[in-house]
Amino acid sequence: MTEQDNLPLSGVRVIEFSHMVMGPTVGVILADLGADVVKVEPIDGDNTRRLQGSGAGFFSMYNRNKRSICVDLKSDAGGALAKKLINSADVVIENFRPGAMDKLGYGYDALAVDNPGLIYCSARGFLSGPYEHRAALDEVVQMMGGLAYMTGLPDRPMRAGASVVDVMGGMFAVIGILAALESRHKTGKGKRVVSSLFESVAFLMGQHMAQEVAQNAPVKPMSIRTSAWGIYDVFATQDDESVFVAVVSDTQWRKFCESFELDDFLADKSLAANGDRVQARDRVLPVIQNLFATFTKSELMTRLDECGLPFAGIGKPSDLFDEPHLLASGGLLDVTLQDGTQTRLPGLPLQMDGKRFGLRHDLPKHGEHTQEILKAAGFADEEISGLFDDKVIA
């Protein structure tokens, strides 16, 4: 789904002041859905472009379908330019430290005077409260909120293997923006939307908080948890590979036993209910481990697929480049990295009327659309040339 007029957010104009992951996630979701997202970068470009190590993929993943303009926001001319762009926008996104945008004159209260319909989204570390002034990172709130504890071993907290809180915080921000757009349809007025990392982790941890109350006992990390199901494990295969297998209902248990000819288990009434199978794991799992060890990975996965059980090989991120399901469904988008490398990266995990959301604009070079954006905003060629000469824009 790439034709602009057919996209659900076609006609929505967004100005994005953001970097790293959380803010750009907000922008890329809106952009994929059809919004015109203008990414405002510093004169020398977003620092995220230059990250190495585990941050080397941030810019490439979260900035497609956007247009880039580079502006010196600290200059008077740059400030006036940015405000002109904002005055014609529906949405502003920012994810800087609390107070930073206000100091530049781009706080919500100041901008709403000239654009009362503006929806202003701040992506923060914390919502209002004692910690609202603090800077935060994905890993910081994972440690604070219990996600690192639940992911690691009892004496070794470990962050999740992706920027899950940054992305989740961005998703909640988009939900807030869409709700504010709907509210504006009724009232004509914009709103300020704030999404946060810490409260996103707290939302994730809600199930474990409820579990602790329900069981009247501290929860254990997932690495040593008591499973909710009798079979919910990784098993070794004959060819030294591994497969995760789950049997999460009594109906699945019967199908599993029939498919793998486990007649003794099927006849054992003490294993008919999931709760009883959980208590009998020490008796059941060794039998299944030995059985699965007689199959190759391919043989086992074929058999599991035939009987309709949840299963998965143990994949790596690199496996996704050639994942048949993603390739067949349009789930990977062709993009060009900053060094010219061509690759595929995952698209928005949504489908509408049977179609996936695709690529309209490749990853922008910094300042690639500066002139185009300013012309559309009504700036004359002479004005634009002067701003370039004065290094207000790039």
Describe this structure in words.
Strand 10 and strand 11 form a beta hairpin. The mean pLDDT is 96. This protein folds into two domains: 4-204 and 364-389, Rossmann fold (3-Layer(aba) Sandwich); 226-317, formyl-coa transferase, domain 3, CATH 3.30.1540. The chain contains 17 helices and 13 strands. It has a six-stranded parallel sheet, with helices on both faces. 41% of the residues lie in helices and 15% in strands. Helix 1 crosses helix 8, helix 6 (138-145) packs parallel to helix 9 (197-215) and helix 8 (164-187) packs across helix 9. With 394 residues, it is of the alpha/beta class.
CATH fold naming of the largest domain: Rossmann fold
> What is the C-level CATH assignment of the largest domain?
Alpha Beta
| Cross-sheet strand order for the largest sheet | 3-2-1-4-5-6
Low-pLDDT runs: none
What's the shape?
elongated
Order of helices and strands: EHEHEHEHHEHHHEHEEHHHHHEHEEEEHH
Mean pLDDT: 96
Please give the domain count.
2
Helix content: 40-55%
Q: What would you give as the CATH superfamily of the largest domain? A: Crotonobetainyl-coa:carnitine coa-transferase, domain 1
Radius of gyration from CA coordinates: 26 Å
Strand content: 15-25%
Global structural class: alpha/beta
Q: State the separation between the terminal residues, measured CA to CA.
A: 32 Å
